[in-house]
């Protein structure tokens, strides 16, 4: 399997940053096979954990492969960490190879490019260490002192909210070099359906993430139906699924409207138009332009404008005849 992985990594590296569905499907199939071995027996768990844990970590931190491949690798990395026996993980995670991988993951978090990827990388570091170990190792992962201190404040029991604070800090501190813009929004609609942020007493804002690396906008929504609490889903709007977008200022708010090429179904709600309302003070235009490119000029044709066009054309035809 190691030879297969090394060859696969060469193929993924050759694909570079160009999005290729075949390479992504190949990555998904390959890691599904690895996880099938991992879940088959205790021997399989031992073999995969000892052999692939650090390799998956290296691939996750490899900025030379497409970000979708990194995301698939880190998902499986976290799954291996979650499902492997404690004693086995203790043996593997103390190796020099894993300590080296941890530094690579810390570096990749700083480079960002996609908020979900950053969350998964942060989760991997937290799964690899106890809170006490993080206090000892974080200074080696992050060269900036206050970034290391911010990482040390992440608690396992409050991971989602603490991780949001940490990532907003490191993305915001990079100014014009940042690869993820995160802005709080006031309301989000999918057609006429209002979407709500996940129910969390400690989550104060409805965050929208503009991801330059993956060329997508992502956010988390509640899918609770009244019977189940704390149910949530991720809405991802990649550039290649966008027909066009507009940003307009209305009643002291900025409204980002994204028209999709196909219907989006999320939590039983369906539509092809997403509208996000932000404070007028936020520079939404810059963020969305970095993700989707310059907006295209779309001309809406109403019955009134159509009749004017027909009338003007009729007048022009008469003048030509005369």
UniProtKB/TrEMBL annotation:
Keyword set, alphabetical order: Chromosome, Nucleus
Name the UniProt record assigns to this protein: SYCP2 protein
GO cellular component entries: condensed chromosome, centromeric region; lateral element
Keyword Ubl conjugation tagged: no
Compartment(s) where it occurs, according to its Swiss-Prot or TrEMBL record: Chromosome; Nucleus
Family from the record: Belongs to the SYCP2 family.
Encoding gene, per UniProt annotation: Sycp2_0
GO biological process, one term: female meiotic nuclear division
Source organism per UniProt: Atractosteus spatula (Alligator gar)
A Pfam cross-reference name: SYCP2_SLD
């Amino acid at each position: 399997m190691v030879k297969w992985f090394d060859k696969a990594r060469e193929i993924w590296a050759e694909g570079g940053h160009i999005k290729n569905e075949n390479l992504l499907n190949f990555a998904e199939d390959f890691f599904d096979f690895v996880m099938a071995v991992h879940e088959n027996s205790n021997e399989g768990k031992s073999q995969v954990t000892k052999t692939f844990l650090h390799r998956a970590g290296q691939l996750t931190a490899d900025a030379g492969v497409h970000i979708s491949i990194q995301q698939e690798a880190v998902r499986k990395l976290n799954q291996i960490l979650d499902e492997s026996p404690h004693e086995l993980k203790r043996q593997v995670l103390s190796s020099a190879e894993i300590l080296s991988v941890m530094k690579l993951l810390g570096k990749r978090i700083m480079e960002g490019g996609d908020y979900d990827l950053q969350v998964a990388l942060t989760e991997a570091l937290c799964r690899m260490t106890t809170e006490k170990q993080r206090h000892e190792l974080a200074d080696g992962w992050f060269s900036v002192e206050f970034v290391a201190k911010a990482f040390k404040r992440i608690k396992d029991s409050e991971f989602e909210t603490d991780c949001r604070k940490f990532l907003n800090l490191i993305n915001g501190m990079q100014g014009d070099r940042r690869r993820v813009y995160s802005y709080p929004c006031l309301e989000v609609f999918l057609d006429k359906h209002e979407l709500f942020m996940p129910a969390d007493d400690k989550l104060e804002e409805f965050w929208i993430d503009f991801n330059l690396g993956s060329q997508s906008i992502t956010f988390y929504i509640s899918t609770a139906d009244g019977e189940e609490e704390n149910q949530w889903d991720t809405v991802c709007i990649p550039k290649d699924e966008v027909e066009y977008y507009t940003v307009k200022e209305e009643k002291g708010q900025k409204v980002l409207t994204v028209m999709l090429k196909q219907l989006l179904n999320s939590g039983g709600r369906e539509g092809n138009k997403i509208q996000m309302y932000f404070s007028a003070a936020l520079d939404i235009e810059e963020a969305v332009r970095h993700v989707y490119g310059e907006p295209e000029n779309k001309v809406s044709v109403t019955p009134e404008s159509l009749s004017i066009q027909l009338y003007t054309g009729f007048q022009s035809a008469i003048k030509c005849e005369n």
